[in-house]
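Support case: zinc ion complex. Customer-provided input:
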Amino acid sequence: MVDSQLTEKLFWKDAYIKEFDATVVSVEGSRMVLDRTAFNPRGGGLVSDLGTVGGQALAEVLKEGDEVIHVFQSQPTSLKGTRVHCLLDWERRYRIMRMHTTAHILSSVVHGETGALITGNQISPDESRIDFDLEQFEKEKMVSYIDSVNEVVRRGVDVRSYFMKRDEAMKMPGLVKLANAAPPTVETLRIVQIGDVDTQADGGVHVKNTSEIGKVVGLRTENKGKKNRRLYFTVG
Ligand SMILES: [Zn+2]
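Agent response - structure generated as follows:
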């Protein structure tokens, strides 16, 4: 049984924690719950963080309700109540952060130009993609959107996150549609704001400043159905 106390989400307080110590709350087969974690679980289109807990490699990190489940490649040897040292695969994680912030900027640019809604996304360390509710997406358009994203990167815009009561967030005109997207049971929303570029209710990890992204490269577009255009990108 999992303790009623939920895992403290260190990745929300500081996305730059590369290692930390934690206490094992429970172990069930290859699954472990910690009292605190900096491993960002799979969700919201982001792939899971990887790394080691007590020297043992993680296969994946999952979210179940508000709980974070660390899944190992084999049965973990650390027992309930023991202290474990945890190490993130930082190279992977930092690319996920840079890709994720890029995805928010790109969504905002394309939405601003076309009004298209985002119907899906997949943020991975090597290559990421966003699906737009669009009938047309020419190659030249992709190039110009990516140019606009790189402008935001060059401007060095600060990214900040904060928590807001749902009813307060609903009063902000720009946030209403986003707040509606979150489950109605959620009382408090985490808001991620990229300066004047984009504000969204979001649970994922981001860089502190857009200058950290480096260079964004548009890879290709794909037609996925009549009104679905998929754009692939990466960061240099
Ligand atoms: Zn996001």
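The two ends are 44 Å apart (CA to CA).

Case will auto-close in a few days if no follow-up is received.
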